[in-house]
Structure formats: C-alpha cells, structure tokens
# Entry
Amino acid sequence: MNIILFDSLPENNTIQAASREHAEIFEHLTKVLKVTPGQSIRMGVVNSSEGTGVITAVRDGEIEFTYKAETKPALHPATLLVAQVRPICMKRILREAVSLGVCRIILTGSDTGEKSYLSSNLYKTGEYRWYLMEGAMQSGHAGIPEVTFTKTVREALALIPGDTSTSLVLPDNVCGAVPLREAHLKEKAVFAVGPERGWSDRERKLFMENGFEPVLLGNRILRTETACSAGLGILLSTMKLI
# Structure
C-alpha cells in the first residue's frame, strides 16, 4: 500500500483490528510498516481527499491517528470499455486500470465471451471493489473510477456521449491499421478492449458505426489484460489529469 485509503474516515479516527472494513489496514500498519506514535503516513478518502495521517497511539487492537487533507484526487479523462473475461483475469484488469488512473470503467458482455462471466461472484458479492481499492492504494492516489455493467456492446455504446473532444479507440488486430502511438488523440478518450477471442464482426461493425477508430498495439495477439495495461499506458501518457 502506497496510501492508506478509507471510504470515509473511521469513527474517532481509530482503526480497529476487529473491524472487517479496516482489519487489513490494521495488519499492514502494524506488521508491515510497524508504525509508532508520531509517524506520518500518506492517507486519503476515496474520491474526496489525499493528505497526511499522523499516528497518535498504537494499542492492542487499535490505532489512533490525525488526518490533514491536502489535495483532491485526480484521474485521467479516459474510459476503459472492456469485455468480460475470466474473473481471475478481470481482477488484474480492474486493479491495473485503477492504478493507471482511468476515470470510468464499462464492463460488457460480448458475442464471443462466456455468458457466465456476467454473473460471477466477483460482482454479485461486491468483491470487485476491493480490487479497485487495491489499485488505488498501489498508485498512491485516492481516485477510484465509476464502474458500469452492461450485457451487450450495443448497451455499452449507448452510455458513451457524443463528444467531439473524445477519441474513440478500438485496438484490434483484425481491422486496425494505424499504430496507437501514431493516432491523433484528443483530450478525452474511450478505449475499447475485446475478450480473449476478440470482438465478433457484428460488434466491430457496431463500433465503427459509432465512430471508433481501429488501431494496432503491435502485430501480436495480446491477452485482454495485457492489451488493457499496454494500451492504456500509451493512451494516458498523452493526457492531462482532471
């Protein structure tokens, strides 16, 4: 953890080992960082503030601290639209996308993807949010993107507003022509990554009809999680934070 994150500051600024919400934070502070009174720790409140926490007391089962907010979280004006893949892979995608700093994630079903992925316990139990938190804590920032779920590409495309300042980018080895690094990117972007078996021809047509530009991420077929990380790394390097 490069920042300690809370959805909201705990009551009396006290982290309790017995709290389900804060047990892992307590363990990290005591066993990894081995905090002592007076020690400063980078802390934040999700999508609200980032700042400095100072440990004031360490007792059996609880840690007290003070917190001073210093800055507001910032994210890149980029949306990752990604087809559902195996939950174990999606965990990595979510974590890395948040770590890189996208402002929105749209998860969608696809023609070639397994329909069972849509009803995974990863989403039913809300477990996926932990991977968002983990990505944010790895990045050292408190910004976490909105996550939206759709069943089809058509539904996902309906969530994308018509905006002339947004690049619509479709990395695809089948119809891509221009390398992503050479594409003319605008100040905002939607980056649409397909499932392991790729988008269907019907879905490619839908993307093209909705203004997406096919691009290449090299000449190799990449795993969905690799395409997400590699592509977003290139894309976000051209963008300013919002």
Q: What stands out?
A: The chain has a mean pLDDT of 93. The longest helix spans residues 87-100. The chain has two domains: 4-71, 76-236. The CA atoms of residues 88 and 122 lie 9 Å apart.
